Amino acid sequence: MESLKGKVITVQGLREASDLGVTLTHEHLTIQIPSFYTPPKEKLAEKLKDVAFEMQYLGWIRQNPYTHIANLTLEGEYDAIKEELLFFKENGGQTIVENTTLGISPNLPYLRNLSESTGINIICGTGFYVDAAQTDTVLNLSEETMAESMRRDILEGREGIRSGMIGEIGTSWPVTDFEKKSLRSSAAVQEDLGCPVIIHPGRNPQAPGEVLRILLEAGGKAQNTVMSHLDRTIFNKSTLLEFAELGSYLEYDLFGIEVSHYQLQETVDMPSDAQRVQTIKALLDEGYEDRVVVSHDIHTKHRLMKYGGHGYSHILLNVVPTMLKRGITQHQVDKILKHNPHNWLKFFK
Fold this sequence. Notes:
Layout: E1 7-10, E2 13-16, E3 22-27, H1 43-48, H2 55-63, H3 78-90, E4 93-98, H4 108-118, E5 121-126, H5 136-139, H6 143-155, E6 165-170, H7 177-193, E7 197-200, H8 207-217, E8 225-227, H9 237-244, E9 249-252, H10 273-285, E10 292-294, H11 314-325, H12 330-345
Parallel strand pairs: 3-4, 4-5, 5-6, 6-7, 7-8, 8-9, 9-10
Antiparallel strand pairs: 1-2
Helix pairs in contact: 3-4, 6-7, 7-8
């Protein structure tokens, strides 16, 4: 087996981590998420779920993104996403980590075409999304079969395209038996190959700690693992710092969502970008500047610039200037956008 230590696997082949530049650690460039569909609760919403993306409806779509059926896929948006990646490159972006795994329709040739046509490094994941997104056949796979599938995707690839990480591993709350199998099999491959892992936790403050412990007990490595979506999951500072002590990377990846109504967990008020920056500043002040990474997690059409959304360049254009005005140094910004992603993405064996 070739030595991958210190290398990064992109959809175009092996790269040095130093070649990655500014890196977003959690995006989707191709995805279908019908399992996210949220039925309308009002008669008016029943009429709106099929409306076109027109200016008069954008406010409603932003408030109810998972009830608007056409919004639940990026399929058919190649040209728009290509333009966005070129714009991202123009604004200093160089690498995107693509988190679409089995259950939400990964498309590796599509990703390679995007990378070749834009010059953006794309690192794609392997593995399994949440229980609710899987077929019965997948749900009944053994841990050994799941591990072998991921191992093959990394070492050999599919259609000549290799995965450079495991994830996003999808988990719910409570964690299901299938999701525990997914975590344990991912840990086995991480321990074997030394690959990076990224996890989607369930929507409960206890979820990040629970799923990371399952991974670690099976041989996974916290220091080579990203915990996603902390901005919609842990709100209490002491709980956050307790989780941070476990040693994973801490990802704030919903930048650009400025709507407090969170359809997928209506008991939660989605924070604003300003609040995300405040929380990151607090983590930096506590000594975690080597563990923070950021992204947008674009997974619906309405967040693309074509449909009036903030797009993949929002962090570079809007969030970084805010960070600098709020006391985060340029050195710390460089760690968040370059140093930390590069260290995570390098194989450690």
